[in-house]
Amino acid sequence: PADRYKILPQDMPAQDPVKRRSNVNEVATGYTETHARLEAMRCLQCKTAPCIKGCPVQIRIKDFIAAIADGDSKKALAIIKENSLLPAVCGRVCPQEVQCQQTCTVGLKFKDPTKAVSIGRLERFVADLDQNQDSVPSVAPDTGMKVAIIGSGPGGIVAATDTRRAGHDVTIFEAFHKTGGVMVYGIPEFRLPKAIVQKEIGILTKMGVKIVCNFIVGRIRTIEQLMKEDGFDAVYIGVGAGLPRFMGIESESLVGVYSANEYLTRANLMKA
Ligand code: SF4
């Protein structure tokens, strides 16, 4: 461990601030292989791996980091995908500093959470290497069951992938004209490029998931109609938390005052 503690935390490369002023491209540009392997070597491979307990989906973190240190990024990605279907997204926008990295032994040793192993950056590194390849999850033989997924945000995508993997006939109904839910309307391009989200959704269509946009369940068809008349055996509702909670501040209903959700939707999805 003493030698590992001597390896400096690898900073995330980022766009030059002067160039960044005039574009909305992603700020962080991602680790190179050298960065990734050095960062992976900082991991102590703790027996108890407290990082895993800090991960909401219990990814085998120390094993995927060991694979990166060995130069086997494909194996690392396969390990992540056992538990998480959106590594390129989660590697970018998960709050690792209060989850897996908060409990990392290296950060605790230095009494500084910013010196923990950069698990999120490593996850993003292996996911981005796969961006030009087509690792489509395999699909079990047809079960004859139909599943409707309402909403194409992260919850809907994961539910659609899991149910399709199990061999069901899956259709996603999206109210907006674009898929991706909060990942598209709620997170700006410089933080999570829309192309990354569309790539993940492209994998769904390659798996045979059908996607219907501009379809408001409850207006166009009710859940009851979907199940009783359209032949769906199950419905998953993943519509997000779209309704804002106003604070009751004076003048908050004036023209030009927006809820965060409305503001982000206008800026990110409608370019308004
Ligand atoms: S807690 Fe930190 S050092 Fe230990 S296995 Fe997890 S990432 Fe590696």
From TrEMBL:
TM region positions: none
Domain Dihydroprymidine dehydrogenase: 21-133
InterPro entries: DPD_II, FAD/NAD-bd_sf, FAD/NAD-binding_dom, Helical_ferredxn
Pfam family of the protein (one): Pyr_redox_2
Gene3D superfamilies for this protein: Alpha-helical ferredoxin (1.10.1060.10), FAD/NAD(P)-binding domain (3.50.50.60)
N-terminal signal peptide: none
UniProt name for this protein: Dihydroprymidine dehydrogenase domain-containing protein
Lineage: unclassified sequences, metagenomes, ecological metagenomes
